[in-house]
Design goal:
four-stranded parallel sheet; alpha/beta; 9 strands; globular; single chain; 42% helix
């Protein structure tokens, strides 16, 4: 994506300092480990990439709120958000033929243990807000219990409560090398056509202890944001995802739209729909214009 980069820890510290200087109050961290495996070790390792980045940022930029994305896809060798139980590795008979996708299951409850372990590890590293984005059933409750039992009762949870199985995630998945190697994520992310399921998923996360809720993506789901705002009295975030950003950038580069005007209009419409927080790649640019 134009203007968006994977950063080393020292460069991330510089970017966070610059963002804070512009009035951006919070940042969210995603990690890309050197090695991936089938139990997402890099996500919960005490010396993982996000843990090290959080410590560095908190030591250098003390008045910024650091949020930590809690998902396993970037750290899993297969690219799924949970532990995979496969019936077979490959059903291909001929060596020249492409392998047939094996039957597989995302093991929900075993994944919860890794998500809770990751959350505690991030809290210990200084992360202020835990933001689970995996969409496993029961993850907010498992994370809340783990945080409370380890002395982090006051660490809030921002739940990706309504995260849809969207086609708008492509650029991020490419950058994070987290596209599933087989199958897709429709068994645990939500049906884009089902607003009622979104409300039920949000309600479950709230019941389990979420302090804040998020809708993802943002612009294609403004009706979901509006419905969530009307129904739930919690801070409501919306995530303007990589595909949304990429479309605006591509159209602007082709001189089809006024980039700055459309950028701000896109953020205004998300805010108008009811979002009290917007997670966006345009945060620093928008802050400059609003100063």
């Amino acid at each position: 994506m134009p203007g968006v980069f994977n950063l080393s820890i020292d460069e991330a510290v510089k970017d966070v300092r610059a963002a804070r200087g512009l009035g951006v109050l919070s940042v969210i961290l995603f990690g890309l480990p050197e090695k991936k495996d089938e139990v997402a070790t890099g996500a919960w390792a005490e010396n993982g990439i996000v843990q090290r980045a959080a410590r560095a940022i908190k030591s250098e930029v003390r008045d910024v709120v650091v949020m930590g994305d809690v998902c396993l896809c970037e750290y899993m060798s297969h690219g799924h958000c949970g532990i995979v139980k496969a019936e077979a590795q490959s059903l291909g008979a001929a060596a020249a033929a492409p392998p047939v996708t094996a039957e597989y299951e995302i093991v929900n409850d075993a994944t919860l243990e890794l998500l809770a372990r990751t959350s505690v590890s991030l809290a210990r590293a200084g992360v202020d807000v835990i933001a689970p984005s995996d969409m496993m059933d029961g993850r907010v409750g498992a994370i809340r219990t783990a945080l409370d039992e380890t002395g982090f009762e006051n660490t809030p949870i921002l739940a990706y409560a309504a995260k849809f199985a969207s086609g708008f995630y492509g650029p991020f998945r490419e950058a994070a090398d987290s596209t599933p190697k087989f199958g897709d994520r429709r068994s645990y992310q939500m049906d884009p056509a089902n607003l009622h399921e979104a409300m039920r998923e949000i309600e479950l996360d709230v019941e389990e202890g979420a302090d804040m809720i998020m809708v993802k993506p943002a612009m294609p789901y403004l009706d979901v944001i509006a419905a969530a705002r009307e129904r739930f009295d919690l801070p409501l975030a919306a995530y303007q995802v990589s595909g949304e950003y990429a479309m605006i950038e591509a159209a602007a580069r082709n001189q089809w739209i006024d980039r700055e005007r459309v950028m701000m209009e896109s953020l205004i419409c998300i805010r108008r729909a009811g979002a009290s927080m917007i997670l966006t790649y345009y945060a620093m640019e928008a802050a400059k214009l609003l100063a």
